[in-house]
Recover the amino acids of this structure.
């Protein structure tokens, strides 16, 4: 039996189909929870639930030819920014730290087991403006395409490409200024893309 498409499941959920709801959340709950856990771990559960609730309660027209992930992460992004604005803690709460506990998706063993390059990378990511930070996370951690990121952030694909380029450049400049051994800094700068992807659970580190 061919699995139902995401938007088909969403439509069924809106009609009260609980099996469709469970299947759709099973597909996407971990990635949305990871998105919030990296920034606001204390409320990751609540914001994840709110995002799915907004998704199913939404009555606006949805582009059926678009990506459901872009639609869902667009909602998640707005929930995150709303939360940060309401609490007036944007600068402090947009830190790139992992949630503690069994739901943490950042690395298999958490921050303690990180390589020095990964620790340095996380510190550098903390210094990025929030929208650069979110764009890199969607690209590296969640594997969204530039068109999906454009849909999630409500900007053009060209703007996404430009933002990724500027974010990588800013990241490299930040790493060069940070205190670290020359070997660790050189290793990280030599493969920022590889080290960024290594932060995903189950991914290998660059050699």
């Amino acid at each position: 039996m061919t699995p139902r498409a995401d938007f088909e499941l969403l439509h069924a959920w809106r009609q009260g189909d609980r099996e469709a709801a469970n299947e759709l959340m099973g597909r996407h709950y971990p990635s949305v929870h990871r998105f919030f856990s990296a920034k606001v771990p204390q409320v990751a559960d609540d914001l994840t639930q709110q995002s799915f609730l907004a998704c199913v309660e939404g009555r606006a027209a949805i582009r059926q030819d678009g990506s459901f992930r872009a639609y869902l992460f667009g909602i998640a992004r707005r929930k995150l920014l709303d939360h940060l604005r309401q609490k007036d803690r944007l600068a402090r709460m947009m830190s790139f730290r992992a949630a503690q506990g069994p739901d943490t998706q950042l690395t298999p063993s958490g921050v303690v087991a990180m390589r020095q390059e990964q620790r340095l990378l996380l510190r550098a990511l903390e210094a990025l403006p929030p929208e650069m930070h979110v764009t890199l996370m969607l690209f590296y951690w969640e594997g969204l395409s530039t068109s999906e990121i454009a849909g999630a952030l409500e900007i053009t694909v060209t703007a996404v490409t430009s933002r990724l380029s500027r974010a990588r450049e800013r990241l490299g400049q930040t790493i060069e200024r940070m205190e670290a051994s020359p070997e660790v800094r050189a290793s990280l700068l030599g493969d920022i893309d590889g080290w960024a992807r290594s932060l995903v659970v189950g991914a290998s580190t660059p050699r």
